[in-house]
Design brief:
globular, mainly alpha, protease, two-stranded antiparallel ribbon, Rhomboid-like fold, two-stranded antiparallel sheet, transmembrane, 305 residues, membrane
């Protein structure tokens, strides 16, 4: 048991591991819910567990959503079916590794959260405006990270369309075709039994595509999100204690304009946003293998920001 808690603490104290943290959160929430469902069902409280899930999954009913607005976030960390979370986490890992390598941890988190928000909003909008879905909206709830994951998949395919995965029984295939198949499956399933989930996939896919396009154009729509996350992160970070220094009146110290001040933008060799955008454009056209050693180093430096 100690080892498990050590693993959890390690996952959240080490820097630059956003992908592992996202997967870890999903798996822990899944495990807790499965254990809770088993205990409550065996004890005859299965209906109570179903009611509990309405506080985590996203309802299509706008009146209910108004009182459980947090479900717009909690739903994309919530799973109850093994194969649902398995395929979501596998895709998150494979495609998330690409986003993390080329764009960095912060933009991976941006895509995951913004993709989930876009999928949830499209779900709410469609179930309250489209007649076909309005007839099926009664008691409809949505959960799962599929909208977030497909946002990351489409973003990776937009950034690196010719990057190749070796799939079992299929062989090498470019990720742009994998993303295209996922989008087509979501479109075809928009009138099926999981219509809401598939519509949320499309919302996430659009977010992933436009996120990378705007990023290549020099704009990052995830900056407001990072500002919000930075605010909450600062609330929970330990502040270093104040230090009192003795000041010798005979040797006063005064700061001067010549005092060295470190800044990331002043570090020699630190790539500019324009250079990064040009490198990303080159990757989208010719692939990562076409980059020079210097360009790869610049991209790596940018991913550490």
């Amino acid at each position: 048991m100690t080892s498990i808690f050590d693993d959890i603490r390690s996952a959240f104290t080490k820097g630059n591991n956003a992908l592992h943290q996202l997967i870890f959160i999903n798996v822990v929430v899944f495990a807790v819910l499965i254990v809770l469902r088993t205990i409550m069902t065996l004890s005859g409280s299965g209906s109570t567990f179903g009611y509990l899930m309405t506080f985590l999954s996203l309802p299509s009913n706008l009146q209910l959503f108004a009182f459980r607005f947090w479900t717009l976030i909690t739903y994309f960390f919530t799973h109850l079916e093994f194969f649902h979370i398995l395929f979501n986490m596998l895709n998150l890992y494979w495609f998330g590794m690409l986003i993390r390598e080329y764009l960095g941890d912060k933009r991976l988190v941006n895509l995951y959260i913004l993709g989930g928000l876009a999928g949830g909003l499209i779900y709410l909008l469609s179930y309250n405006t489209i007649p076909y879905l309005q007839l099926r909206a009664e008691g409809s709830f949505m959960m799962g990270a599929s909208g977030s994951v497909i946002a990351i998949m489409v973003a990776a395919a937009t950034l690196l369309p010719n990057y190749t995965f070796n799939l079992i029984l299929i062989g090498p295939i470019r990720i742009k075709y994998i993303a295209l198949v996922m989008v087509l499956l979501s479109i075809s399933g928009a009138t099926g039994g999981n219509a809401g989930g598939n519509i949320a996939h499309l919302g996430g896919a659009l977010l992933g595509f436009f996120y990378v396009r705007q990023l290549q154009g020099g704009s990052d729509m995830g900056r407001p999100l990072q500002a919000v996350l930075g605010f909450f992160r600062g609330l929970f970070q330990r502040r270093s204690p104040l230090k009192v220094a003795y000041k010798n009146p005979n040797r006063p110290y005064s700061a001067s304009a010549s005092s060295p001040v470190s800044s990331a933008s002043n570090i020699p060799g630190n790539p500019s946003q324009l250079e990064i955008d040009q490198i990303l454009d080159k990757i989208s056209v010719s692939g990562y293998e076409s980059l020079t050693k210097e360009e790869k180093q610049k991209l790596f430096k940018a991913s550490q920001k």
